[in-house]
Queue: 4 jobs
Job 1
Amino acid sequence: IYKAVTFIYSNKFKRNVYKKSTIANAENEWKKIWNETEKPFFMEINVWQPHAPYLLDRECKEVKDIIDYHLLGTEKVELSKEIEHYGNEIHCVNKQMISFIKSIKDKDPYSITVIISDHGHSFFTNMNIEPEKWTDKSIISRSANLWAVQFPEKCNNRFYDTVSVVNTFRFVFSCIFNQKIPLLEDKVFVHGKGEYRFVLYSKK
């Protein structure tokens, strides 16, 4: 089944040309839901940005010279070019994210906002080889997550420098219910290598 689905997907849907929903689109949808929904409410938004392929430039306009998605992370594209395209879309993402967070804060200054990435970049990773053969540099960069939160001030003392995504909702619920909820250990598992530990870095 997996092979059949993979074949159909890769032949029928060209990942290079699909239109991504942007964070600006998410902000517009959030505004509609805010006006129509009883408060308080929980909303989860999954936006495939700045995930490859990189379709937007620094000003959030469509890119003309899109790098083939299937060539990224294979060492077949000049690394500096890949990083440049990624950096441009990150610039667009940051602008849209700042706007979105401001909208939330203006509407509800006591809201809880959590921003999480699914994984880190692959600039140092050859995606053609099995994860158990990745270098430490590859694992650290690929496992690195963005984890940014906006909590009511009363809950800010609950955080620590090496927090990871596994404890996200433990923080959320502990803040909402004003309870100290036990946290899980922050660690990473890598396919073929089992538990993998490294120093986690955080900037407040």
Job 2
Amino acid sequence: SCDCPTGHVWLGERCQVRERLTSKEICETAYAPARWDTVRRRCLCPSEPVSTVWIDQECRAVSVVSEAVACSAEANGGRWNQDLATCVCGAGKWDRAARLCR
């Protein structure tokens, strides 16, 4: 792939502005080596060698992402409940270790 400038992604044979692209468009590029889940309409990041989660259109290590941020991110679409210190998922249950609504 091409070495695009900061804020750009190689897609469609050219460097494109990342913020103008959808997560679906970015998900399976060399920039974000993940795969698009057509059923739940979210980007599934790799779990090996480090567990990652889709935040702000990139796969980030769960070790550096707070549960509250991951909960409300596009990958989950949940709502962080401060009183219970957990994520209220729209669908599924909160997987604290993976930082995902499953």
Job 3
Amino acid sequence: MSNPDSYFNRTEVSNSDLTELKNYLYPRAQYGDKEKAFKFGTLVDALITENERVRYDKRMVDNVVYSGEDFELGLAMRDALRREARRDPFLAQVLAKSDTQRFMVNKKQIFQYGNFEYTLDTRCKWDWWLPDFGFGGDLKTTFAESQAQFNEAMDFFDWDRSRAWYMDIAGSEQDFIYAISKKNCKIFKHFITDRSHPSYIRGKEKYEDLAFKWWQLMV
């Protein structure tokens, strides 16, 4: 997309909207600096999936300037993912063949809450979408230093909810996450192999609860 802001100006319900609703309904102590984390995540996303947005000579993404330390870390994380792709044939295919930052809209998506049925207009934006295979996945940055810590982060940050949300908007049967550690540049992976996978089931339960609350409050 040429205008990175256009997606966020849309009116359909996104997983980020559900996150904001959850934070409003169930406030908890913030985990680190949210704005700083979002800004750095934008840098890493751009370095890996939207290189045309990056001004390497000025350490900028769009009109945002990054510190030398953050920019160098972002480059190191990008390079770590590229090295991993030499050992991981699937990741190599993802980096070579994905549509990046592709958004999808599902008008009047049907939801069920108990026996009650309702609809919402929904949207999502894929870091990676594999059109040849009909599924996609997500790129994350994380403070986790081990796979076990990453698994805990998945539940804490509701990444399982986002994957189920994306899968149901697209109608896809599989999904994946690749995460890069900000601490040691290790690569962590998580694959949802089908809709019976525990991460899909748990994520769907999470989003169904919040989507119904959204419908009650906003529609």
Job 4
Amino acid sequence: MKNNKRLPTLAAALLFLLPALSGTLHAQIITLTGETFKTLHGKQSGLYSFFTMQDGRLAPVPHQWVQWSEQGYPYFEEDDSTSPVGDPLRIDAEDRLLLRFEDGGQPLDGPVTEQVAAELAVEQGGETRYFYLIKNAYLQNTDRYVQFDPQSMTIKSTDYALSMAGGNLFNWSDFYFRGFEGENGERQSILDTLKLRLSAGLFGENNRITLSNNNLDPKVKQVINGPLAALVYASTSVTVAKVPVLRINNYFLVMPKQMEIHSRFTLPGIAETVVKRPALDISLDGNGLYDSQLMTSWTGNHLAITDGRLSDAEKAMLDKPLGGDNWIWFSTGRGFDLLAQLAFLKGFDTPARLLYQDDASLVNDPERFPGQLPNVGFSLTDIPFGQEFYFVTRLFYSKDSQGLAPGNYARQQLDEPSATLTLE
């Protein structure tokens, strides 16, 4: 039976920055690598602006270059474990370019007053849109679609707002999405909290301890706020009995309707003298999201429905390890859907498994609201010591997955764009 009375006490409203985006399939940020721009390698990226045809004329649209490191992660000056590829001010093969696909237009069909340096044709999901590079353009686009404030620890975008409690980057609390309403038609936080739990035996297998978000104190080392993405670098270290047992580097790319989290973590070899058989759980706990549905790419046609109990189908889903390019689709049916892709890129010899809890009374700290309704993520067990693990979590937010079946929606959202640059 649904609990309609349990609604959260609403925090102070977080204001969105810009008008609402359209609900089209391609209202997401696309990423192109510097390989597309070979003919411009070595050129200063700041010299070029991106324009598209709008109402019969060229108009500037937002773009953002993101630097990558030689080690294969987003580059931040404050991260001394990485080094940049080439000159950060010049275009090279490892750079990433961010664009909004929906900003792309039709090809030029007549003369224009601007001096076009190149045409960029981008194809995704069977659709092609065109951008034009203008060198030393007088007109510039000044729109900003997302902002991260390290003082208040809040993210505000055109479509959602997320706050972190206690100044802790891992203590996700209120999450509001434009158009989502609670069961009584009131504004409601979709999220209870993010849950991070590291458990291990202390000086022996039978004396297990558990560390949660409350035991982690990530240090925000650098923030880069751009028009299409806020980039955040944070590092975390955990010590038990004066022995370092965990090191984490996180690189967040926060975008208007999506988020990309690069995570590197290591259990130092010396930690094996203190902790035994470590396990890690990472999950998001929903706030009373009854009747929501969940499917994954690796558990067949099983459908999980949040109703306060685990069905046989849900139990079967928990037994299957993640594999390949996996994804999780989650729909509230009330104006918010989530597609999550988990890419395990380095060090994962032990398979991860789905974590899914559907229980109105189960306590799984940290949490603000009773129950796991639902708590969704993944678990890693028997993590080896002395090696680095690297995985990327991609989160895509939408109103209703454009009405597509989960598999079709996932394929279209996760489809890698292709692009061709033609110099004029």
